[in-house]
């Protein structure tokens, strides 16, 4: 059985490795198909396609869009998207704009706490247009204000911590709609983030499905066997596609490897065809 990984981040958003570097790790791990799913950006895809062709790794064009409903931040993965679609590219640029408004506010909060950090330093370190909190966490590590990314989040950046600034986010229905308009299949990422289980999750997924959701990320680095089975069961009951991936970020999530997650992740290749067929089935918008 061959292994795939449909959830990977690169330097184009908050990952610490380039698409080429991520693909080389994937190749070593025996991954035969993958999706680069950077946050709100598709600019890493051309490099992935070029290197994938060299290494014999199939590339599924992907993206991960953050959305919010109530108190839960839901991430919506888009697969088999027409990544050069101009409307999609514009939507994603607008989402990144809202991050740009938030990041300087976070820096201001950190400065008011007495930490000597500037937004310019974050921009230099990030080297991408898609700056996120993990970049700020890395700056805090570099300047020895935190010992790890987790420490930076726990002390300053996470919700409820002193430098937390809420971000405007689209509702899931919008994110799902944008992905579908670009010919893609929308999938709920890391469903544990929804902070609901049992009947609550069932009804959330039913709502999202009515809004166009096509699948759920059943296989994920931090899922327990029990969670994987529960999500598999839910996917079956609601007739949603099953996907999976590591959510590799490199240095900001050092315990997670490409393809194998924390060691026991194995996303089977047979999940790929149904995903591709669903994208074709959606047809032109
Ligand atoms: Zn996510
Ligand atoms: Zn992710």
Essential attributes:
alpha/beta, 5-stranded mixed β-sheet, binds zinc ion, 285 residues, globular, 9 strands
Can you walk me through this structure?
It is a single chain. The chain has 285 residues and is of the alpha/beta class. The protein is built from 10 helices and 9 strands. Strands 4-5-6-7-8 form a 5-stranded mixed β-sheet. Strand 4 and strand 5 (72-79) form a beta hairpin. The relative contact order is 0.17. Bound molecules: zinc ion (2 copies). One zinc ion binds next to loops.
Order of helices and strands: EHEHEEEHHHHHEHEHEEH
User: Roughly what percent helix?
Assistant: 40-55%
What binds here, in terms of ligands, is: zinc ion
Overall spatial form? globular
| Major β-sheet strand ordering | 4-5-6-7-8
Low-confidence stretches: none
Distance between the first and last residues' Cα: 35 Å
Specify the structural class. alpha/beta
Radius of gyration: 18 Å
The total of helices stands at: 10
Question: How confident is the prediction overall: mean pLDDT?
Answer: 94
> Strand portion, in percent?
15-25%
Quick recap:
The protein is of the alpha/beta class. The protein has helices at residues 19-28, 45-55, 86-112, 119-126, 133-142, 149-157, 172-181, 198-210, 225-238, 272-282; strands at residues 3-8, 31-36, 58-59, 62-69, 72-79, 185-188, 215-220, 241-245, 267-268. A 5-stranded mixed beta sheet has the order 4-5-6-7-8. Strands 3-2-1-9 form a 4-stranded mixed beta sheet, covered by helices on one side.
């Amino acid at each position: 059985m061959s292994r795939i990984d449909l959830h990977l981040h690169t330097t184009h958003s908050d990952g610490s490795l380039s698409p080429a570097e991520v693909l080389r790790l994937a190749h070593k791990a025996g991954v035969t198909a993958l999706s680069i799913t950077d946050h709100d950006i598709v600019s890493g895809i051309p490099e992935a396609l070029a290197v994938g062709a060299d290494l014999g790794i199939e590339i599924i064009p992907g993206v991960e869009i953050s959305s919010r409903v109530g108190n839960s931040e839901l991430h919506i993965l888009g697969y088999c998207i027409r990544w050069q679609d101009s409307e999609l590219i514009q939507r994603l640029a607008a989402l990144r704009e809202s991050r740009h408004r938030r990041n300087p506010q976070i820096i201001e909060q950190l400065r008011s706490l007495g930490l000597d950090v500037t937004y310019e330093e974050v921009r230099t370190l990030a080297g991408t247009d898609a700056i996120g909190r993990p970049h700020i966490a890395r700056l805090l590590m570099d300047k020895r204000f935190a010992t790890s990314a987790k420490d930076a989040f726990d002390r300053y950046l996470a919700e409820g911590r002193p430098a937390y600034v809420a971000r405007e986010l689209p509702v899931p229905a919008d994110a799902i709609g944008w992905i579908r308009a670009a010919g893609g299949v929308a999938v709920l990422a890391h469903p544990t983030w929804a902070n609901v289980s049992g009947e609550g999750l069932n009804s959330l997924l039913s709502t999202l499905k009515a809004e166009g959701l096509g699948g759920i990320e059943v296989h994920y680095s931090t899922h327990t066997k029990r969670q994987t089975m529960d999500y598999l069961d839910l996917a079956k009951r609601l007739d949603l596609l099953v996907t999976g991936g590591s959510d590799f970020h490199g240095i900001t999530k050092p315990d997670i490897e490409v393809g194998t997650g924390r060691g026991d992740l194995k996303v089977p290749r047979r999940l790929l065809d149904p995903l591709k067929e669903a994208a074709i089935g959606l047809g032109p918008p």
